[in-house]
Every structure is written in C-alpha cells, then in structure tokens.
Amino acid sequence: MGHGAAKSRRRGQRPRGTFAEPCPVVADDRTHRGKLPGKTSPAYRGHHDSQMRQNAAKPKIQPMLAQRTLKSLTKAVGVGLHSGQRVELTLRPAPPDTGIVFRRVDLPEPVEIAVNATAVTDTRLASTISNGNVKVHTIEHLMSACAGLGLDNLYVDITAEEVPILDGSSASFVYLLQSAGIVMQKAPKRFIRVTQPVEVREGEGRQVKWARLDPFHGYKLAFEIEFDHPAVNSTGQRVEFDFGSGQYAREIARARTFGFTKDVEAMRSHGLALGGGLDNAIVMDDVKVLNADGLRYQDEFVKHKIRGQTAARRLQRVSQRPRHEQPAVACLARAS
C-alpha cells in the first residue's frame, strides 16, 4: 500500500483484505511471516474447515419455527364476563417447553393449571380448565391471542377464577402481548401433522354441526354459521382465513362475543353474564344490533367463531406450521 493510501485510512478502521473473523498468525511461513494467511494457504484452509465444523454442530432453528415467549411481564385489570368479579391478570415470560400455565395466586397456596386438551372440563358458553377443584373460566380470548401471535410459553397469574373479558374480543390481549414484546427462544415449536381427513358430526337436518380436518400446507380455517336472526342474516356468515397471511390481529382478533337480550335474564338467573354489557359484547334484540358503534367487521359474528376455533387449537398445545412447510391442517366447520 502506498504512503498516501496509508494516510487516508482512519484510525481503528480495518484494512481492506483482512478477515472479519480471527485467523491464526503464521510465524513460520517465510511468505506470510507476521501476516494473516491467504485463502489458499494450508493454515487458512484448516481454520476455515474448523469454523465450518463448529457451525454445523450448532442446531439452527428458523425464526418461524422457534418457540416464543414474552420479553417482559405485562398486567391487566378487568371483570369476568360471567362472574362480574374484579380480576387482576399478570402475563410473564416462561422458559422453552413450558407451554401456557395459569396460576391461581388468589388461593392460600398458588395452584398451577397447564393448558392442554386434557385440562378442559367445560365448554358450555366458555372454555374452562381445571386442576382438581381449582378452575379458570373463559380462557378462550387470551388463548386465541396467543395462538394468533404464535406465543408458546407463558405464565398467567390470575387473582380470580375467570379471565377478564376486557373489550369482549382478543384485541386487548394482542395489545398487551405485543406491548410486552415477543422474543424467539432456542427451541423448536411442536406441530400436529394431519395426514388424512378427519370429520366429526353432531345433530340432524338444520341442527347438524360438523367439523373436518384436511391435510394442507399451512393452517387455514373455514367456518360457517347459521342463526335465524335478521341482524346476523344481513352479514356474511361464512369466512375462510389463512393464518399464514400474518393478518390475525387485523382481520380476526377484534371480533367480539355476541348475545341476545331475550337470553340475558335467564343467563343472569343462573349466575352467568353478570359482567356482560354493551362495552364488551355485541348485544341484539329481536331485529337489530343495539351497540351504538355497530359492528367492527361486516362479518363479525362468524369471525367471532373463527377466533374461538383458534383458541381451541391452542388448547392442544401445538402451533400451526408456516405455509411453506410440510402439510398441517385445513379446518372446516359449520355451527348453528
């Protein structure tokens, strides 16, 4: 290098032609004495091969396939939809392979309930999980948010037996989780791969309900509802959503639970819907929606059902595969 070029180099700047990674200095080679070895030298090839072997030994996990948890804890306070009871919720990071674990911290001795299919003990009007006599109700809105954001590991500390309803959708939980930050972990997700169609049916005629799983490259959910009500009939009652689109927060999460004024009195006489109202549910009389702000989506009723199915999938403690991976599942369902 000429004298003028040497002067133009800034102090601390790495000279061109040197290596970003450390290489051994060759002290016994007359041609490279005191210099870094060239790429064709035996010393460089040996060092390069060693680095390649070390890198190959380290397991690499693609970002889409890595487990996820929160970066920091986050809290929320609200009331239970059915109990009407005030409840505090604290969402905390958890190590890989923990899954989602609820902790009833209001009890003299905190009790943990791990979220999985065998922990589900009731699905009438809400999803309930149990550990012995200890229960947590209405977990589906939070579970849907976790599934939609690909969250695998989470501790949920709760001070009552029902998750707060917040605004009646999963959007508030999406906001809480995203505000805390979501980080990748050094462990792969686990998946269920559907290799052939599986179908379940219940009822007959107009009362029939069915669900079918088909092999698919990714995770796509189609859902159809049928309610004999003018307000519902005037909206879209069938929707298909591909979770590989990354649009869960925008297209699904804001859909709220809904109910009818004719059912409210009977439900409250049985200790249900005590915390429900126009601020956390879509409420309809015999002909119309009573909420002043109307619907959030033109097809909000069926999207509420899609969101519920998302939560049900998260109860299996598995994740959807990205679209470009091996066949996972396409789910179709119909309910009335």
CATH class categorisation of the domain at 63-188: Alpha Beta
Strand content: 25-35%
The overall average pLDDT, rounded, is 81
Helical content stands at 10-25%
Count all strands and give the number: 17
Report Rg: 27 Å
Query: Structural class of the helix and strand makeup?
Result: alpha+beta
Give the low-pLDDT segments. 1-37, 317-329
**Through-space gap between termini:** 81 Å
Instruction: Examine the secondary-structure arrangement and name the CATH architecture of the domain at 63-188.
Output: 2-Layer Sandwich
Structure characterization notes:
- The chain has 336 residues and is of the alpha+beta class.
- Among the domains are: 63-188, 2-Layer Sandwich (Ribosomal Protein S5, domain 2); 191-256 and 296-336, lpxc deacetylase, domain 2 (lpxc deacetylase, domain 1), CATH 3.30.1700.
- The chain is 22% helix and 25% strand.
- It has helices at 3-8, 42-57, 140-148, 171-180, 230-233, 248-251, 261-269, 300-314, and strands at residues 66-70, 74-79, 86-92, 100-104, 111-114, 120-122, 128-131, 134-136, 154-158, 182-188, 198-202, 209-214, 219-225, 238-242, 258-260, 282-284, 329-335.
- The strands form five sheets. A five-stranded mixed β-sheet has the order 2-3-9-4-5, with helices on one face. Strands 11-12-17-13-14 form a five-stranded mixed β-sheet, covered by helices on one side.
- α3 crosses α4 and α3 crosses α8 (300-314).
- It is globular.
Question: Tags for this entry?
Answer:
336 residues; alpha+beta; lpxc deacetylase, domain 1; five-stranded mixed sheet; disordered N terminus
